[in-house]
Design a protein that fits this description.
Largest sheet: 3 strands, antiparallel
CATH architecture: Orthogonal Bundle
Strand order of the largest sheet: 3-5-4
CATH superfamily: Winged helix-like DNA-binding domain superfamily/Winged helix DNA-binding domain
Order of helices and strands: HEEHHEHHEEH
CATH class: Mainly Alpha
Helix content: 40-55%
Distance between the termini: 9 Å
Shape: globular
């Protein structure tokens, strides 16, 4: 297996009943639900903890896109993309504007892209140090 393939197969996304959606409630020991998350950083990072939402942010790196363009690029059901976009908007990662009946989405704060790039670099650096164990 190539190093890049091993790297990406080591990064798992936790899902809940098939949907990679952050929960308002946190999981305690043995997977039981506990009280609401008090720290807004938890919600922020949970919004990033989805392959689809990361792909949306990567698409928006190049500039504003309509919801139809995002749906076509991802090849997902429109309702799924809509749910992911709503979550990204609610946490402040994505901005939206309406032109007629078309919604256009863009990155709300360029620091989000820097954060994703930093996370990628940290993972690559870690993998470069530990790849012989895979």
């Amino acid at each position: 297996m190539e190093r890049e393939n091993i790297l990406y197969s080591c990064i798992a996304v936790q899902s809940y009943k098939g949907a990679n959606m952050p929960r308002v409630m946190g999981k305690g020991p043995r997977g039981r639900m506990m009280g609401p998350m008090a720290d807004p950083r938890s919600r922020f990072f949970m919004a990033l903890a989805s392959d689809q939402r990361l792909k949306i942010l990567e698409l928006l790196k190049d500039g504003e896109k309509s919801s139809a363009e995002i749906i076509q690029a991802l090849g997902l059901d429109p309702s799924v993309v809509s749910r992911h976009l709503m979550m990204l908007r609610n946490i402040g990662l994505v901005a939206a504007r309406k032109e007629g009946i078309v919604l256009y989405f863009s990155i709300a704060d360029d620091r989000v892209l820097q954060l994703i790039d930093l996370a990628t670099q940290i993972i690559k650096d870690w993998f470069d140090q530990h790849w012989q164990f895979f």
